[in-house]
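To assess whether the prediction recovers the assembly geometry, we first specified each molecular entity separately, as shown.
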Amino acid sequence: MAGFSDDIPFFDDDDATPVPAKSQGGGGLAARAMAARKPSGNMPDYLAGLNPEQRLAVETTEGPVLVLAGAGTGKTRVLTTRIAHILSTNRAYPSQILAVTFTNKAAREMKTRIGHFVGEAIEGMPWLGTFHSIGVKMLRRHAELAGLKSGFTILDTDDVIRLLKQIIQAEGLDDKRWPARQFANMIDSWKNKAQGPKDISEGDARAFGNGKGRELYYAYQARLQTLNACDFGDLLLHPIRIFRENPDVLREYHQKFRYILVDEYQDTNVAQYMWLRLLAQRPGGERPNVCCVGDDDQSIYGWRGAEVDNILRFEKDFSNATVIKLERNYRSTAHILGAAAHLIAHNEGRLGKTLFTDHPNPDDGLVQVHAAWDSEEEARAIGEEIEQYQRKGHNLNDMAILVRASFQMREFEDRFVTLGLNYRVIGGPRFYERQEIRDAMAYFRVVAQGADDLAFERIINVPKRGLGEATIRQVHDAARARNTPMLQAAAELAESDELKPKARASLRQVSANFHRWQELLENTPHTELAEMILDESGYTDMWKNDKSAEAPGRLDNLKELIRSMEEYESLRSFLEHVALVMDAEQQEDLDAVSIMTLHSAKGLEFETVFLPGWEEGLFPHQRALDEGGRSGLEEERRLAYVGLTRAKKNLHLWFVSNRRIHGLWQSTIPSRFIDELPEAHVEVAEGGGNSYGGYGVGDRRNPYGSSRFDKVESFSNTYATPGWQRAQKNKTEATSRNWGNRSGHAVERIGYGEVDSGFGAGRGSVKPRTIEGELVAKSVASAPSPFSVGDRVFHIKFGNGNISNIEGNKLTVDFDKAGQKRVLDSFVQPA
DNA sequence: GATATACTAATTTTT
DNA sequence: TTAGTATATC
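The predicted structure of the complete assembly is given in tokenized form:
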């Protein structure tokens, strides 16, 4: 693992200027990259496969460059080739290139790819990493300028919340009324905007804790200082302050970094932007060699403080910038690109790119839109489609399900478990966030950093040692009173008479243990020490004695933890790595379907992509609409665009009519994004297609099946809309073709029919241009809604209610029991 | 001080 | 629905 180990000399090649191209350069990477050139001809190998725009982006090494790279246009390739080019032409040494990515995954991938160009000596790129990892590296170097000691700890969200809870309580506030979690989010967003306690607006300051927001923020920062700790935001804010207050330090970095590259520029927030600008902008009008690569259409982290405007500002901040657009897409079929382009064109304020492909293929299929009755059926049908692809020889590794919200994953997991289909959840609950891992890490942290009170508090009574709330409080107070770490206070308390004998003995034992481990720290192999700590503390035994079902798994995880420590040279470097890289690497050797959120899918590609849950309220997410207004909607649309452009060949969209949210059934209507897809590239998958089946023989029965069927049957007799007729038709086809008249199956079919028809009915004035229009044309000539405001209607799930508004086929109904809902007219009948 | 039960709340995305 | 927290009880 190429972590940022401390043994890399800081200003190694500082004053050296590599010999410019042509003449043979010094040894190391550059020489190896030179060797990668073709023996004959002038063009180096690595440039050969690039298209003209890509090549321009690679070869324009001097001055500011903004690369607007659409999805699948070879963005990463440009970045890595550019670095290879800089190295091989001896423009800079590896250590003089600052390359910043947004995620650890991207950093890793760049390292690997550069490794291919220049040999395996990747550690020669010490300044390639995420904003945060590079920020830490700088901060460790200059910690004292931020009032910290170099060994400071990095707190994760969990630590921060526990700390804030203490602070809120200490301020005499009710921590139920003023949740620490919420305040942590507020602080995070302030820090994303590079605002310290003194900078936040009066309104923000008053919004929390009875107007004590600012005081709490101050108290929090003060507490971090005494704990010798940082949160994530500080990893950037401290360096920014250091640069501003110490021009000499900044100058050193200016001299050091000859080339700066930034990936995913559209995702940078204000703090990152300021950090970057400080490093890039040179005094005296010198043009910095800064290259930012991004795609405004893929900006999906606005909620986390990302500013798309940073892209727009680039040309203002860096005069005479070269702007290069990459629009030639190598990933997707023309239909997929067409669908994505049409969708994203609904956004305003874009820089305006249009993806195109050089290789249109007439055999490519259209984008498919499917409907299902509920999320359970959605999961079942997608599972069957996946099995079909599999039977046709596709690898599961080439397929992915991308969801809007992680709760959607569960249904797929359940289904795939029963099917015995391999799957892999990406970005789910993370290894390092598991309780046992965090406990173990807390032990290690206290050993490595005795002042880490948060870690100490976490495990002081884990496993149970008879040190309850009262004792902990006492230790805590003693530490605060004497201004010492809790571990030290505990040791002192244990020697005094202030505690009951039992607690005293226990406390004495704990602090003696930690003392012993700390003394072993320098001279014991760290994995050995780690094992010793977990054994002697009784932590391993705690899980061995635990009879719950998860206990063996937790023990396995602990073993895995120790094993993963072997890759690091010390306990400290391991702790640092974990703080920054919360994800554990996935094993790729298994053939499995990937399940992940749309956010974590950015940057990935799959041959076949399923996008379930395209319903109003879920996607676009209601909260994005409520809190973000139009810009919130546009970000959701960009998220949809990201989803569509992940697919290389096959793309399936799904929506359902009923979804259970918070345990309550909600009737849902199709996402407006489906309406925004172009007819030419999209088709509606028919319910009767071979991709849906009912229940296989011996399958578990749908628990809702029978009752739903009964109700549907009963109202079918009186219902006579076109939609219903269509449903009937489908039902008959299905029943006769497949498993006869098994009720459960027929019910599923009805679901399809209803959705399709309801979707399309009404809105008589619109030409059938969109998917919706197509459905209208397919089902029946459009008919006006058979209802009028005030009608009393019955709905399968919600019962009776009165119609309060009608928009085309979408009714707003005040249900007697379920409250106001928006439903499709085909789902209700006159009461 | 530990455990069990009851209740509540909150349900997006994450470096 | 579930997960996480607060309270009551042993």
